[in-house]
Amino acid sequence: MLVTLKEILEIAEKRKIAVGAFNAVNLECLQAIIWAAEELEVPVIVQFAQCHEIYNRLEDMGPVMVEWAKRASVPVCVHLDHGETLEYLQKALALGFTGIMYDGSTLPYKQNMENTRKAVAMAAAAGASVEAELGCMGRRESGAGDRSGEDDETKIYTDPMQAAFFVDETHIDALACSFGTTHGIYLKQPKLDFSVVEHVRRDTGGIPVVMHGGSGVSKEDFRAAIRAGVRKINYYTYMDKAGGSAAAEYVKSLAEGQPCFYAEAAVRARQAMMENVKEAMKTFAFLD
Hints:
By secondary structure, this protein is of the alpha/beta class. It contains ten helices and eight strands.
């Protein structure tokens, strides 16, 4: 069933879990995510990021995502991830997305706040919810080619006092916070500051905190972040990697001269992504 970001985060708050937010850059990704959520009977957020236009267009994937969400047996929010312009946010809302993220984290604070206010007004007119970001995770959520988990001078940790004012002024439904994670592949264990999450929750009166750069974080750290108040966890890179590894294994298994079929590689990739997503969902929902 299709629900808004606010509604699905209310479920997470009530259960004291985090809802996984997984990027669906193509149909195989979307199937893996929805089928995993239905098998485990957990709510889920399917996302499309503006930087993923290199794989598919929003206007092509968006309607498919919305239709699959409506048909799902579990609550599903269809969310725009890292929307960089108000025009792109409007395009997602027109397609029926029930959540949008305006990412103005690299802009001056006042400009980020002004644009976020506009995003909230746009979303309200469409019956959708808004996530915004304060602080910076350092790298865009592009997946391939990232070298993360290293010291990154572009990361800016979220200031809880500033977050309180930002939430009060913009009336957003969720806040993405920087507390030590980075987008992409981790080359070493990240050092997470859970006190940032705790203080943001306290100072904002309980705003649902969003964790970006979740791939590669340990199970123990995920659950510590959730206990601190994280209610949405973005997860894509390692899911994508699992699919790529499965496709590569299929190609390696072929005898010399044996034809390689794209459809077979895609099916194997989808199954591997589904298994990877299920493990993430179990961690986020405390199912094991």
